[in-house]
């Protein structure tokens, strides 16, 4: 990317006029004249007059002139000062008729209205007509003086200058191919500020005058072309978001936009390479991957103590609960699994907010009920956002369901408010502000395959997979071409078939891919007996619900050193003792996995906000993983936009039936 950027910069400096004319802003020094300036740049006086018509009336020290860096070759002329008539084209008018009316050559009209070289006059458009003497203007015309020394120029015609604007300004003559973005950037303005200063200007036309600021970039300016484009910075965007969006590093972005040395500000107009091949799926992934095994301690880096504005969206569905008795609430909680999960998750969130408060982080927590009707979830989320102010929100945790989460991300994308999906394991639409905190099932499979590939060297690999798992069976076959395959028959695998595939004097890694209880039971029971005389380990890429069946003995899994990928890990009784005691004292029960996830996720978000300018900035500053009681977070940019957490545990069941982390990534 640095090589590409260097090539683009060279193109900017040396591009020929056939692609885009180069210009420079020249500040007139005391004693300089148009003739001396023309000699300095090896151009003619007419070249200067062409882009600075007012210079024919004289130039003052400190005035700014547009200087073409390549001469047009036209000879100098000593014409009288030019004034302009702004003429609104009437129906059936022609250039010939206008030249006769104003006593001016057709070429002179085209000279100051460049589009007329290739386009016909359009009824209703306004054009500038140069005249050496003020004619008797008709009802469609208005005289406009073209001097840059006056800041109170007429607001008539195409200049669009607002006479009520009292800011320190000057005038800018629009050059061919210039855009509002480019002009705003030259003068350190936002596009909105430029439009406010020129309220009557619609589509830019070469030669018209705009009111602009006085802070002119004192360097060469290239008119926008296919090599570069302009971009207006949105609210809450920072270096990290910009580098991800456009595929260039921070140093290169600053090289193109020196004003960024003072930081990113909303409304800034930036110049970026117009590279159609840029793909955010490849942006800085290597940097993140290199740091993926590095743990980050955010608690020791807290620096931002501003109150955090946090929104929690959970599907309580309170509108369906009757409010006449306590028993009604109890029954709703007992009978409604989604409500129970929401309350458990919320309890963990409150624990995290209290923990953050002890660390000096204040939080303003707002909670909204998104309900959970799959048909109305998105509609309810949109209604919440439409009727409440989210402009100052630092992050939104929730909703639970995919459609509702995508609706929230879409609605808040314009303001770059981060939306964190807490529980969904399904891949979502790639909104730039969407963070998937739970790895998808595909990520778990990939993590386990990576673990197998790295650690199965010199092992005798045996694959047992039923018909439903033919895809993973094929992938395992490609990874391990020497693997032996044992096929189940009628929901059962015989012990003799497995024994024939095992090696007597080598470590055997048996990879079991099935969720059929009969297959799981026959394999784990048979391997448990065969393990008395052989070294056997059992592994899977997907620990489904079948392993929780009573017919699949945990003792057998423990003896076989069973390993599998997991989003979370088991509580460590020693390190988690204080948290368990505090939770139990507060709520009267031990925390379950949803309560712990609510705590882990919320504390991670609050710590990231407290160690950086915002959530996006935290991923630029801290690229390693963060880890709490049961969950780990390591976010990577997604293809097309947004981020996902790829932190997966490889878990192992120990002989004493406890769980341990076999491999972090």
UniProtKB/TrEMBL annotation:
<dbReference type="InterPro" id="IPR018392">
    <property type="entry name" value="LysM"/>
</dbReference>
<protein>
    <submittedName>
        <fullName>LysM peptidoglycan-binding domain-containing protein</fullName>
    </submittedName>
</protein>
<feature type="compositionally biased region" description="Low complexity">
    <location>
        <begin position="139"/>
        <end position="160"/>
    </location>
</feature>
<keyword id="KW-0732">Signal</keyword>
<feature type="domain" description="LysM">
    <location>
        <begin position="24"/>
        <end position="67"/>
    </location>
</feature>
<dbReference type="Pfam" id="PF13458">
    <property type="entry name" value="Peripla_BP_6"/>
</dbReference>
<dbReference type="Pfam" id="PF01476">
    <property type="entry name" value="LysM"/>
</dbReference>
<comment type="similarity">
    <text>Belongs to the leucine-binding protein family.</text>
</comment>
<dbReference type="InterPro" id="IPR028081">
    <property type="entry name" value="Leu-bd"/>
</dbReference>
<dbReference type="InterPro" id="IPR028082">
    <property type="entry name" value="Peripla_BP_I"/>
</dbReference>
<dbReference type="InterPro" id="IPR036779">
    <property type="entry name" value="LysM_dom_sf"/>
</dbReference>
<feature type="signal peptide">
    <location>
        <begin position="1"/>
        <end position="20"/>
    </location>
</feature>
<feature type="domain" description="LysM">
    <location>
        <begin position="85"/>
        <end position="129"/>
    </location>
</feature>
<feature type="region of interest" description="Disordered">
    <location>
        <begin position="138"/>
        <end position="169"/>
    </location>
</feature>
């Amino acid at each position: 990317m640095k090589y590409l950027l260097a090539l683009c910069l060279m193109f900017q400096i040396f591009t020929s006029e056939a692609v885009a004319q180069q210009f420079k802003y020249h500040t007139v020094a005391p004693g300089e004249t148009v003739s001396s300036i023309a000699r300095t740049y090896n151009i003619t006086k007419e070249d200067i007059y062409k882009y600075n018509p007012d210079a024919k009336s004289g130039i003052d020290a400190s005035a700014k002139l547009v200087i073409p860096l390549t001469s047009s070759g036209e000879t100098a002329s000593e014409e009288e000062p030019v004034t302009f008539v702004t003429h609104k084209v009437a129906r059936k008018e022609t250039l010939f008729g206008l030249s006769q009316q104003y006593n001016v050559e057709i070429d002179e009209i085209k000279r100051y209205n460049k589009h007329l070289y290739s386009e016909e006059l359009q009824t209703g458009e306004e054009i500038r007509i140069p005249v050496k003497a003020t004619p008797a203007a008709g009802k469609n015309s208005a005289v406009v003086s073209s001097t840059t020394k006056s800041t109170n120029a007429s607001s008539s015609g195409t200049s669009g200058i607002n006479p009520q604007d009292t800011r320190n300004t000057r005038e800018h003559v629009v050059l061919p191919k210039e855009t509002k973005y480019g002009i705003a950037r030259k003068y350190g303005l936002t596009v909105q500020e430029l439009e406010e200063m020129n309220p009557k200007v619609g589509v830019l036309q070469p030669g018209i005058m705009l009111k602009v600021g006085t802070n002119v970039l004192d360097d060469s300016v290239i008119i926008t072309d296919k090599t570069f484009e302009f971009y207006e910075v949105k609210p809450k965007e920072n270096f990290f978001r910009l580098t991800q969006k456009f595929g260039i590093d921070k140093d290169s972005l600053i090289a193109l936009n020196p004003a960024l040395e003072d930081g990113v500000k909303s409304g800034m107009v930036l110049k970026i390479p117009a590279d159609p091949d840029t793909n955010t799926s490849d942006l800085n992934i290597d940097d993140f991957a290199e740091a993926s095994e590095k743990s980050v301690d955010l608690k020791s880096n807290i620096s931002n103590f501003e109150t955090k504005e946090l929104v929690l969206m959970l599907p309580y569905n309170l509108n369906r609960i009757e409010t006449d008795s306590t028993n009604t609430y109890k029954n709703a909680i007992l009978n409604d699994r989604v409500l129970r999960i929401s309350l458990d998750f919320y309890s963990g969130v409150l624990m995290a907010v209290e923990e953050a408060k002890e660390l000096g982080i204040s939080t303003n927590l707002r909670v909204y009920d998104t309900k959970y009707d799959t048909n109305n979830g998105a509609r309810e989320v949109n209604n919440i956002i439409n009727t409440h102010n989210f402009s100052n929100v630092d992050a939104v945790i929730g909703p639970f369901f995919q459609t509702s989460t995508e609706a929230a991300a879409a609605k808040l994308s314009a303001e770059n408010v981060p939306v964190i999906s807490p529980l969904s394991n399904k891949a979502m639409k790639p909104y730039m502000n969407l963070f998937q905190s739970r790895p998808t099932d595909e990520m778990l499979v990939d993590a386990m395959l990576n673990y197998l590939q790295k650690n199965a060297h010199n092992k005798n690999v045996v694959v047992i997979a039923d018909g439903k798992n033919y895809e993973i069976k094929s992938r395992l076959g490609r990874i391990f071409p020497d693997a032996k395959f044992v096929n189940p028959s009628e929901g059962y695998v015989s012990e003799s078939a497995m024994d024939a595939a095992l090696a007597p004097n080598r470590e055997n890694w048996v990879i079991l891919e099935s969720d059929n209880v009969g297959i799981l039971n026959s394999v784990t029971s048979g391997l448990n007996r065969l393990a008395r005389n052989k070294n056997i380990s059992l592994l899977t890429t997907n620990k489904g619900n079948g392993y929780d069946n009573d017919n699949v003995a945990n003792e057998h899994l423990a003896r076989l050193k069973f390993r599998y990928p997991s989003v979370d890990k088991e509580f460590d009784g020693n390190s988690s003792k204080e948290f368990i005691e505090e939770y139990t004292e507060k709520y009267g029960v031990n925390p379950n996995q949803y309560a712990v996830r609510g705590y882990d996720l919320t504390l991670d978000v609050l710590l990231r906000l407290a160690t950086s300018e915002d959530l996006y900035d935290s991923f630029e500053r801290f690229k390693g993983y963060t880890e709490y009681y049961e969950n780990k977070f390591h976010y990577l940019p997604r293809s097309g936009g947004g981020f996902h957490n790829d932190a997966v545990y490889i878990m192992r069941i120990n002989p004493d039936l406890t769980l341990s982390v076999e491999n972090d990534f």
